[in-house]
Amino acid sequence: MRVLIAGCGDLGTEAGLRFAAAGFSVLGWRRSPENLPAPITGQAADLTGRTGELPRIPAGTDVVVIAVAAGERSEAAYRAAYVDGTANVLDALERDGVRPRRILFVSSTAVYGDADGGEVDEHTPPDPASVTGEVILEAERLLHDRRPDAVVLRLAGIYGPGRTRLIDTVSAGTAVVPAGTRLTNRIHRDDAAAAIVHLSTQVSHPDPLYVGVDEEPVELADVLQFLAAELRTELPAPSDSGSSRGGNRRISNRRLLGTGFEFAYPTFREGYRAVLAGTGVRHP
Ligand SMILES: NC(=O)c1ccc[n+]([C@@H]2O[C@H](COP(=O)([O-])OP(=O)(O)OC[C@H]3O[C@@H](n4cnc5c(N)ncnc54)[C@H](OP(=O)(O)O)[C@@H]3O)[C@@H](O)[C@H]2O)c1
């Protein structure tokens, strides 16, 4: 069994290690593959196609995961990574006559609009509030036009080992506590990686779309309060100066749970406790 992870960064590496543990031979593509840990085989590849053709895809590749991220927050960078990257991977599969059983594209809940506190799930029409969200949606559509059987996994904000921005601001006393409502949705990196492997290997007839989010949409102020209590520190007074990004939505993971997926970190409490305890592995 073979898997190709195109854009093998933090999430792709964690998924790759889990594929390897499940018996897969794992090939990881990125521009700087030197630091990919064994047993992942790293190979240099630029998905944007700027440096020429993609490498040959090994015959017998069963699963392809596209988990690329853009290097910067601009429309051009997002288009190159997500839209061109996805098209180039599909072209390379055709070029090499490889027809994987499953293609999974890691997307983002940024394709949804503001829900005014309401529930969002796979039936909610996308309505991106940002141009980067529009470009990711374009990549999803390109993929489904060419491979209707592909699986799109829209992840909410990823946290986990090495992703300690909120913890750091609470520790430093610089957390911006929203004065008003600011609903947030998140998923631990390891659960996101486990969901990729689960949807690629354990679900025989998957839906074309899943959201990857834990079991508890939560006010950002409550997460900060929890972290402050764990760190035995005080939060600054609430202010209105925080970013309004986040979409004010309660994202439901009902469809993912319906496939039999079980979360290791069902809510931010278990997940952040693990991060604070230093459990989990940080990848280069
Ligand atoms: N972070 C979040 O909260 C969040 C939320 C929702 C969805 N997501 C999605 O989750 C996915 C994975 O995120 P992540 O945190 O694992 O990101 P990451 O650690 O930055 O990994 C992305 C990888 O893509 C590679 N890459 C970038 N441009 C490339 C190119 N042109 N050709 C080949 N590889 C390229 C990078 O490696 P090189 O630089 O070596 O090429 C990097 O290792 C992304 O699709 C992201 O949109 C993230």
Automatic annotation (TrEMBL):
This entry's Gene Ontology molecular function terms read: aldehyde dehydrogenase (NAD+) activity
Q: Which residues form the NAD-dependent epimerase/dehydratase domain?
A: 7-206
Quote a single Gene Ontology cellular component term: cytoplasm
Q: Which SUPFAM superfamilies match?
A: NAD(P)-binding Rossmann-fold domains (SSF51735)
The record, for InterPro entries, names:
Epimerase_deHydtase, NAD(P)-bd_dom_sf, NAD(P)-dependent_oxidoreduct
**Family annotation (Gene3D superfamilies):** NAD(P)-binding Rossmann-like Domain
Which protein are we looking at? SDR family oxidoreductase
Report which residue ranges the record marks as coiled coil.
Answer: none
The organism is: Arthrobacter zhangbolii
> Which Pfam family is one of this chain's hits?
Epimerase
